[in-house]
Every structure is written in C-alpha cells, then in structure tokens.
Amino acid sequence: MAGFQDITTIIVEQFKVSNKLVPCIMGAPGGGKSALAIQIGEKGEEYFGVPFDNVIIFNASLRDPTDLLGMPNVHGECARWLPPEELYTCRTGRNLIIIEEIGDMSPEMSNAMCGLLELRQVNNLKLSDETYIIATGNRTEDKSGAQRMTTKLANRVQRFDFDTRLDDWCDWALGAGVDVQMIQFLRFKPNLLHDFDANRLLNPSPRAWAKANLVPATLDSVLYMDAIAGNVGQGAAAEYTAFRRIADNLPSIDSILMNPATVDVPEDVAVRFALIGAIAQRTTKDNIDRLIEFTNRMPVDFNVMYMNDVTKMQPDVKKTKAFVSWAVKNANALV
User: Fold this and answer.
1) Which terminus of the chain has a smaller tally of CB atoms within 10 A, N or C?
2) Tens digit of each residue's pLDDT (9 = 90 or more) over 39-96
3) Which CATH class is domain 4-161?
C-alpha cells in the first residue's frame, strides 16, 4: 500500500510523460483519496499544464449510463447522441476528469465507463488527446456500498491501494489551517487518525478530523465534546477533549520566552506534545532564537517536530541566524 505523498508523486511524474494511464485510488472511506485527486487538480497547471478551470469532478455513483452516453436526439433522418455538457467541454484542450466513487456505480454504468477509460470516447464524443483521468473508490470490505469492480474495468485502470499515513496528513493539515493542537493530539495518538471499523456508524478518519476542526472551541466543554463526537465518535472525542484540557493548562509561553534556559521542561509525554504545538504557533522570526534554546532542552524527537512544523507555518524563520545554526547542527534530522 502507498501513502498520500507517494501516490501523488507517481501520478504527477506519470502525467508529465503520458495521459494514457488511469490511476485508480482505492481505500477506506474518509482516508483522503478525494483530497489527493483534488490537490493534483489544484496544482495541475503547475504539474502538467491543466488549468483548474478544466478540472471536472464526475461522481459515478450518482450518475446513470445516459450521463456518459448522452441523450438521443431524434430530430432529422436518424437519431444522434447528444453528449453531456461536462464531457462535451473536454473535446478540446487540456483537461482532468476526476471520477469519484468508481466502486459504487451500477453494472450498467461500469460498462459505459469502460469505453471512456480505454478509448477516451463514448458514442460519437471523443475526448481531446490531452485529457487526463483519475479515479477514486471505496473498497468492498468497508461496507460503504462499493461493489466488486468488474475485471474488464479493473483491466483498464492502474490501481493504488491507499494507506493513510500520519506524516502525510500532518503535512496537509499544517497547510490547511488545522488547529495545531489537533495535529499534536494525533501525533500523540496516531492510531486515532484513521480507526475505521465498518461495523461502527462513526469512525475517526482524516475527513472526520478535518470536519471536527471546524467545531468552534468557544462552545461549553460538554457541548464541544458532543460536537466533536458527532464527527469522530465518542471514544476519540473523549480522548481529544482531554488532550485539549492539558493544552489549556500548559506552562506560559511568555515565561518560556523570558527564561528559555531555566523554565521547567514538562516530563509528561502528552504535555510535551501539546506544548510543542503551542510553541510552534507562537514562533516568529523575532523570537525563534529563544524558543530554540528551550526546545533544545527537550528530547530530539520533539525538537525536530517543532522545527518541521515551524518551517512549514513560518517559512521566514529559515532566514534567521538561529535557524541556520540549528540546521547545521541537525542536518541529518530535519526533513
């Protein structure tokens, strides 16, 4: 199984050479398959020359074969097929079609899809020679409504079994504005990033955590936990809200800035995770020297975690003397 970044790299490099392969990303619900495809679409112009305006999302599970084949126009001497507008626009230019829920579509839709994926043509509609296609789908074992893919359809795609990985998600989350304390919690409890059980109605997943991040922290603590549980389930919500209570009682960042060499370094692992997140949020190019002095007193794993996060959130710190000095001493650790 491959992770978010690995699959992204493979698809992008392949698309730079050819658009004939159809990557099909299969995995458990909520793991980030759609986000991966959409991120490629958002950067398509940079990667392989497809403007985002030319990215089409086609949800196969909600469509009928006529949505691919078109409708018959019976005017005139013979019937002619009128293709759907979204595919009609792909007759020319560089385009990317993202086919969502490919495993949930009907057998009839699967038959119609074969021609689109292999020949880039349906009835008298032919896609441009510069149209790229990515597909995503759920697995049958996850009981999400997916059906077994027919062998003839499977033979027309390049299957990737998607594996949710913490580092990939953290990289995405730091750029997506996810609360740093949520990121730190999932680093502390990595098994809760994607704890999917098909027999449970609610499961912690990357998609569920991204939605939980939208719950306002200004809610009363009981209401806040109920709202988080509505996304990730009761067990994960209880652990996350307990972690946030730890974060609410951390040592003052101001006291660390004033006395980085003498303020106590917490021994509790959960507190260290929470503290690194809080420090990273407060770091600027003007105070990084003092915060590095403090984090250097923590175990190296936390020190590197802090610097990785800071450089993603505040790229300007890379120009500081303190960062350069730290990077030279830890050249083998910073990634």
Assistant:
1) C
2) 999 999 999 999 999 999 999 888 888 888 888 887 878 877 788 888 889 999 999 9
3) alpha beta
